Amino acid sequence: MTGSRLQQRVEMLLKEAFEKRPDLFPISLKVESDQSIRIILDGDSGVNLQDCIEISRAVEHQLDREEFDFSLEVSSAGATAPLELPRQYRKNLGRTLEVKTEELEVKGTLEAVSASDITLSWKTREPKPIGKGKHTVRKEEVIPFSEIEKAKVVLKF
């Protein structure tokens, strides 16, 4: 049962660390049976190496090596990692996202984020209502978080 005790201890230490750094938040915490600890974090303004070091030290320096023979890895959510928490969307306002739901797959600009949904907008070419040819139309879709199966930021180079 060492694994579950270690998990509880790490969760408590992370809670304390994130109280001191409210701009950072955990995406995932995994404590494996071999006592390897893997923490992925994100931040309202992104995450840098110093942030990872700070969270790593907050956990590592408070764990007793006599009690737990652990390894620790702290990393940031990658630029291409899917968005998992509603909080991650706010820092990506104005960026292009690819969002997949059961009925829809859309690529658009993240215009708004509320407590329950996001708003994407994009331009598309559609046939003119009267006459021949096409014209550019601006579309907008409000997508509830509960319906999002996968969302990721589209990187532009």
Keywords for this structure?
Ribosome_maturation_RimP, alpha+beta, 157 residues, GMP Synthetase, Chain A, domain 3, 5-stranded antiparallel β-sheet, ribosome biogenesis, SH3 type barrels, RimP_C, RimP_N, 23% helix, 2 domains, Ribosome maturation factor RimP, 8 strands
Please give a quick description of this structure:
Pfam families: DUF150_C, RimP_N. This protein is α+β, with helices and mostly antiparallel strands and 157 residues long.
Please characterize this protein's 3D structure.
The protein is of the alpha+beta class and 157 residues long. It has two domains: 2-76, GMP Synthetase, Chain A, domain 3, CATH 3.30.300; 86-153, SH3 type barrels, CATH 2.30.30.100. Helices cover 23% and strands 39% of the residues. The chain is built from three helices and eight strands. The strands form two sheets. It has a five-stranded antiparallel β-sheet. Helix 1 (2-20) crosses helix 2 (49-60). The longest helix has 19 residues, at 2-20.
Q: Topology, please?
A:
Elements: H1 2-20, E1 24-31, E2 36-43, H2 49-60, E3 71-76, H3 86-90, E4 96-100, E5 105-113, E6 117-127, E7 134-144, E8 150-153
Parallel strand pairs: 2-3
Antiparallel strand pairs: 1-2, 4-5, 4-8, 5-6, 6-7
InterPro entries: Ribosome_maturation_RimP, RimP_C, RimP_N, RimP_N_sf
Subcellular location: Cytoplasm
Protein name: Ribosome maturation factor RimP
The CATH architecture term of the largest domain is: 2-Layer Sandwich
Order of helices and strands: HEEHEHEEEEE
Instruction: Look at the structure and give the mean pLDDT.
Output: 92
CATH hierarchy, class of the largest domain: Alpha Beta
Strand content: 35-45%
- Taking the alpha carbons of the first and last residues, their distance comes to 48 Å
In the CATH hierarchy, the third-tier topology of the largest domain is known as GMP Synthetase, Chain A, domain 3
Neighbour order of strands in the largest sheet: 7-6-5-4-8
Low-pLDDT segments, ≥5 res: none
Measured as a percent range, the helix fraction is 10-25%
Number of domains: 2
How many helices in DSSP terms? 3
Structural class assignment? alpha+beta
Give the beta-strand count: 8
